[in-house]
Specification:
The chain is an all-alpha fold. It is built from 5 helices and no strands.
Length: about 150
């Protein structure tokens, strides 16, 4: 029961912190709440990659994929995909490209020595293809919705 209240308090503190940061960004650089929320989604998706990188500190592709994902996420931030009101699934807008970048780096650095590792690499390639299809579907539905509403 104590863990439940600890998690609840952390969630409430996170909401309060987001509200304070959002208000500060609005006052300082005139950033709307939707844009602040998207910046938070970028931070969350990059934090997930960073936390995974901390698990395996000696593997170099985590570092490279993190910086590529950072560039891609901020590039997405300035595309027409974000010219709409923010939704609850906004983190997926930034997490799907991160998963594609991460899986691609992992697949390229994965060494194949036997049949089992070859099978594992094929599963990773399948994961990349599925992530690309999901990303394309998500982005296409967003762009189609934007063109219909104009």
């Amino acid at each position: 029961m104590g863990r439940y209240f600890t998690k609840l308090i952390l969630v409430l503190l996170g909401i309060i912190a987001f509200a304070l940061i959002s208000a500060a960004l609005k006052n300082l650089i005139n950033l709307s709440n939707d844009q602040s929320y998207r910046l938070l989604c970028i931070a969350i998706s990059l934090f997930m990659m960073w936390a995974y990188r901390k698990t395996f500190p000696k593997i170099r592709y985590f570092w490279i994929s993190f910086w590529i994902a950072l560039i891609v996420n901020f590039a997405i931030f300035f595309t027409p995909l974000v010219e709409r009101s923010a939704s609850r699934g906004e983190v997926l807008l930034f997490a799907f490209p991160n998963s594609i970048i991460f899986l691609t780096a992992l697949t390229l650095s994965y060494s194949v020595v036997d049949d089992r590792s070859r099978t594992m690499r094929q599963y990773m390639l399948l994961g990349i293809i599925v992530a690309i299809l999901f990303s394309m579907t998500l982005y296409a539905s967003i762009l189609m919705n934007l063109s219909i509403n104009k």
